[in-house]
Amino acid sequence: MSAHPCHRDLYTVEQLRLLDRAALAALGISGQELMYRAASAALNSLRRHWPQARRICIHCGPGNNGGDGFLLGVLAHEAGLQVELVALGSTSHGDAAKAREAWQAGAGRVQLWDAQALLPEAELHVDALYGIGLNRAPEAGAARLIEQINRSGLPVLALDVPSGLNSDTGDCPGTAIRADVTVSFIAGKRGLHTGRAADQVGVLELAGLGVPDSVYEHVRPDAQLLAAAALPARARYANKGNHGHVLVIGGDYGMAGAARLAGESALRAGAGLVSVATRAEHGFALNATRPELMVRGVDGPQTLAPLLERASVLALGPGLGQAAWGHALWLTALDANKPLVLDADGLNLLAREPRQFGTPTVLTPHPGEAARLLGISTAEIERDRFAAVRELSRRYAAVVVLKGAGSLIADPDGRLDVCPWGNPGMASAGMGDLLTGIVAALLAQGCTPWQAAGLGVGLHARAGDLAAQQGERGLLASDLLAPLRALGNGMPGGGGEHG
């Protein structure tokens, strides 16, 4: 499929409706003609992915998404495919009613869905039940149909949005289609790139339907997908002092590994110097296994203070704990007013003692930590990750990375990027510590907090995808260090990049 001119731009449902109206006006066509274009794009996708399929079953709802499905049925029938068409109800609305008539005019039979019935025999199911407007759980009859489609074991092509998935937020308030391929129309939907969408969308394609570039110029996207990037080449006369000094603060008893991972990832991401302030008992082991780290035992604020003076950026929180030792170091580090990456127990302490940040700061919470920072439940965070990350950024006056499937990056002005990389193997211990060190290293090398967060999240996730080429299960955080170095230098690192 050819690249869409605005393939990285993501929109809300309200914005998508504006784009739809503007597209019709710019093209000078009817809503039904735009549906024909969507149906044609869907048929092209179907034949690319399943060229041997001869019998398909299309499931249509009452609205425009169902209209796309009816017209796909018309085109598929004309192309010689056997088409079974199942509708949720006996009527359709607006342009979808015309599309339904077009299907029936060609002697097409519409089978009304009966929740007690079995699915028609087919090689492929097409989901055209709900479009972008669904923001609630599907009704009981539709939910039963979705469950049967999911249990069928057959491949599923979703039109525009997998039914049941909220295209604004990525949440599934009830049951939702698990698609193998989703062909989306006109513009990117932000909810298809984060949260639960990771399990519902499958391969995502965007069909522009011939909409001219001018249509997009008047609607500013709500968010953008990150683009793959690396740091520029270094000057030949560079020395380690030119690339910043990261101080990792953490590693309470039993958690030395967290501090080491953050420190080592900061080195692999290009920091000139990396020190680790940790429990004195960890010093020998860390120096023996990674001698490039400058490990210092600290027992409280007085021994931390001289290390803070020499550092240019702080990575505060990996393995820090929330007991007296960690709390004292946390307070002292924040009072130093240095550029900062705050993670793990650094965030949990912030939830207990909130403050806004006046120095360049990046917060990197997972959904549980985000919930504590906002005083709400984790489920509420996941219901609208976009609103949550923006509120965190506003409340704490910092750039915020909300980690998870489709990590989000927001700044206090409302700007938002979405990470399109990463995999389930990265849901393992130490991955967040790596990200902390990477972002801190990028800050130390002169990136702004926004640049460091976006580039750091992208490098971290892309390194994870490369490391997972040998399998996602059993992926270790340290497996990312070699591909991280390659990607940071603009090298392919063995492939596996997106976009």
From TrEMBL:
Protein name as annotated: Bifunctional NAD(P)H-hydrate repair enzyme
The reactions it catalyses are: (6S)-NADHX + ADP = AMP + phosphate + NADH + H(+); (6R)-NADHX = (6S)-NADHX; (6S)-NADPHX + ADP = AMP + phosphate + NADPH + H(+); (6R)-NADPHX = (6S)-NADPHX
Subunit details for this protein? Homotetramer.
| Electron transport listed as a keyword | no
Highest taxon of the lineage: Bacteria
Keyword Magnesium belongs to the record: no
Keywords for this entry? ATP-binding, Isomerase, Lyase, Metal-binding, Multifunctional enzyme, NAD, NADP, Nucleotide-binding, Potassium
